[in-house]
Amino acid sequence: MTTDLTTPVAIRVLPAPGADRVRAVARRAGLNCAPGHDPRALTVIVAGDAEHALRGMRAPGPLVLVCDGVTRTGLLLALRSGAVVLRSADLSEDTLAAAVRRAGRPHQSIPYPVLSQLLAGGREYGDLWPPSEVPTTLTGRQVSVLRLMAEGHANADIARLLSCSEHTVKNVVHEVMSRLQARNRAHAVARAVRLGLV
Fold this sequence. Notes:
This protein is α/β, with parallel strands linked by helices. Helices cover 45% and strands 13% of the residues.
């Protein structure tokens, strides 16, 4: 299911403590709460933490998690599964509508503070991937460039920080985008995080 900024979205809030509050906020936000098990509806899960909510989860399609707490592990699991996480403390009509829009896009964006925090912590939790699905690793230079791209540095800044030429940086960015089949720099960083490569 794809959505744009103006299309009303049907959501399905799974039964859980706090689900009634989320449904009420969704109605105030103008989101349609789908009855039953509409397969076209975007699924919203209310849980204590993202990691617990995603363990063994097989919900089809786009997914929004409304959680009391979000650990780094839970956030990585959510990103890798394509889910959008919203803290219960931040729940409002605007934040829920924005989370639903992000989840409905085929290529989600990752908010910069979340991305920066994940990249700063380095790679962990590689065991979440089944052995047959482990993606190709990136070189150390490619990871360094991706991290600096995620921090908002331009090619000239990256070249200065890595003590190499701007031409080298352009080549590395091109290699990374080709390898990750990314449309742009932000998409490359998002895919790398989602795949656990950085």
